[in-house]
Amino acid sequence: AKLEANRPKEEKVYDEKNNTYKVKTYSYEELVADDIRAIETFNAQPHPNQKRYPGMSRWDVLCAHQNPNLAPWDKAVLYRFIGQHTETTIRQNTYCTVMYNQYGLPSPEIIEKLEPRNYKVDAYYLPDADGTINEVYIYQNGRYIATCKPVARYNENTAEQTEYDKAAYTEQSKYVAQFDKMMKDGKIKRVGILAKEEAKLITEVQAEAVPLPAQAEEEDYSAYMDISAFEHDAVAKI
Fold first, then answer.
1. In terms of C-beta density within 10 A (0-12 exposed, 13-18 middle, 19 or more buried), how is residue 6 classed?
2. Taking the model in full, what pTM does it have?
């Protein structure tokens, strides 16, 4: 290996044991910078097939020959494999807590996607460089449920509210109104008396089977998570 971090420097300590060494350690930032430098150096090398790609680097060839029909990458799928994971619970039909912060459901209708009486979900996320989590992707038993955004806090003191507080309050009030409407629309109506003519028409209706569209199976990306083969191949070509 040619990375600086893989060439530890040892300094012998002469003591009564005579087998003690000081081994240099590296910080997380140094390790990341060393890896990035190695990647950039590799990508900047001339492409092995200079006869076909004269004067072009590996990176130039990659950028010039990308498949134009590739679909945009889906964060909800990608973060499930490379992001951080935690188990959490939907609280008050509104939000879930991840890393001590609340992330709200995009709409009350999302609750209908959950299993009956089961509010436990798996949250996947990837913090920014400063540790900020801008969105959380929640799953239940491997099935994608929704993308949750941070819940904006607001000052409840009306006299001290800023425009930001008012906007946050309005946004949360909209969600509450949508939830109340959903509950109202789903209420069981009073029992009524069906007219004989209508009852006769209903009994005469013949049930017909309705074909359902085949559900696309979720792609398995686990095979791409083992990068050891790619690393070995890349090093061999240096």
1. exposed
2. 0.57
